[in-house]
């Protein structure tokens, strides 16, 4: 009898543990909305930044040239925030976490160069 009670108890505990793990997994966000700084100057910058984010996993991305803020909604299974920063830097724009390579930045049109306190030609 004790053996049967122990088996029932063990099965009950296993079921509760499995249920809580499934519940925890379902609470993990599948999409995230975040905002961060991306440096740029003009409409060309906006187009370049947003086009770079026209990639699998990004559901929405818009960059505001006045505030320098990128608003983005993305799928966490396909992209990480770090990867998004790297994508933006790969087209010549610094973010608050990743700096574009100098060679890529220097290839930007003059109106799109923003480093060194340069005034943007809005």
Radius of gyration: 23 Å
The first-to-last residue Cα distance is: 82 Å
Strand order of the largest sheet: 1-3-2
Return the CATH class of the domain at 31-112: Alpha Beta
> What summary fits the major beta sheet?
3 strands, antiparallel
Helical residues, percent:
40-55%
The total of helices stands at 4
- Mean pLDDT across every amino acid position: 85
CATH topology of the domain at 31-112: Alpha-Beta Plaits
The appropriate CATH architecture of the domain at 31-112 is 2-Layer Sandwich
User: Globular, elongated, flat, extended or rod-shaped: what is the shape?
Assistant: elongated
The total beta strand count reads 3
Query: Which spans of ≥5 residues are poorly predicted at pLDDT below 50?
Result: none
Structural class by helix and strand composition: alpha+beta
Share of residues in strands:
15-25%
Give the H and E element order. Answer: HEHEEHH
Describe this structure in words.
The chain is α+β, with helices and mostly antiparallel strands and 122 residues long. It has a domain at 31-112: Alpha-Beta Plaits (2-Layer Sandwich), CATH 3.30.70.100. Helix content is 42%, strand content 17%. The protein has 4 helices and 3 strands. A 3-stranded antiparallel β-sheet has the order 1-3-2. β2 and β3 form a beta hairpin. It is elongated and about 80 Å long. The N and C termini lie far apart (82 Å). The mean pLDDT is 85.
